[in-house]
Amino acid sequence: MGACCSCQRIERFEGYHVEEEEEENGFEDDDIILRGDAGARVRLQGSSKYVSVFTQQGKKGVNQDAMTVWESFSGDKDMFFCAVFDGHGPSGHKVARYVRDFLPARISLSYKQASDDGKNVVLDIETEAETENSESKNPLFLSWKARMTKCFHEMDEQLEGDASIESYCSGTTSVCVLKKGEHLIIANLGDSRAVLCSRDESNQLVPEQLTVDLKPNLPGEAHRIRSCQGRVLAMDEEPSVYRIWMPHEDCPGLAMARAFGDFCLKDFGLISTPEVTYRKLTDRDEFVVLATDGIWDALSNDEVIKTIASARNRSTAAKLLIEKAVRAWRYKFPRAKIDDCAVICLFLKKQKPLLTKSVSEMSQLSLNYSELDARSCTGSMRSDDALDTVLNCKVDESPENGESTTNRPRKRRPARKFEYVGE
């Protein structure tokens, strides 16, 4: 839940070059493209040859989702950096935008700098000799993991020190992927999610979840929080949604175990340390989807990848997925307010049809929500607000014995407008 890029045509990015492009087919609003560190192309909305980006405001107020794609990351034409941010709390949209604007540049600079042990070596992911399940022993991966973690911690410290952003009871999740050639680094903070679409031996599309939704009731997360005197409890009206509470106050009720900001809970078990993992890509891998929980609460991983694969054009893939998620929300949670949604689709191959079925056949992949049984619709316990934070609320502190562990490429016209902002 963060910034809606389509709501504001030009953001204030000091020193960034802004280039606005119009699509010949009229898709979406004009693209917003910035110039980042080392000449990277920074995309906040729209699409390109390998990415589709879209966000839509829900029914809870201002859109608190934000996202960014950096092509030619750190000056490397073969490198992509993608990230989505899900803000929460009174100023969650501001926190999500703030982290969106500063975190990628930190990671880009770190990529070019020497490792923390003082050696003057530039870590190049492409030189990693990764083998399956060898992450814990590979020194280059461990070095990169330490760099990524350091960037997240420094970003959190910068946020805390900026008085212009209220982050005491506001924060944001983040899930990032860094792709270079066949190498994929994933950094996850919170409950947004990354899913890889691959093909099995029968050439069928299958999802592979790359991240774990870091909820407070996961055993490891709950242990850390409670060891820091924080409380992990669910409210009576949301028995399946566990939240973090301060030791002696019924606030803020945060529904994730890791986040930027939310400094009221940083002494009580909430951390800004990401889970960093590695995946070596193969010829069977088709695309990666990054999305906020507005998507995953409504659709399964399998539904998500098949919806994207059914898109007639890559440029419409992210928007098509959000439209499907909104329809699913209305049927599955008729009494709940639809959440904000943000999606990034990163395609791994040159454009070609992913499925050989016709569009009419592909439409059968969609769920027929009108035929969902009544229990799955009306029996939902999701509250009307379904908030990520609950600032003041009475909670039952009795111990929970049953606590879960839980076709053709589009042509662009030349850039029509160039501006320098922040002057």
From TrEMBL:
Keyword Hydrolase part of the UniProt annotation: yes
Domain PPM-type phosphatase per the UniProt entry, residue ranges: 50-348
Keyword Hydrolase: yes
Ranges where the record places region Disordered: 396-423
Family annotation (Pfam families): PP2C
Record keywords, A-Z: Hydrolase
GO molecular function, one term: protein serine/threonine phosphatase activity
Name listed for the protein in its UniProt record: Serine/threonine protein phosphatase
Originating species: Handroanthus impetiginosus
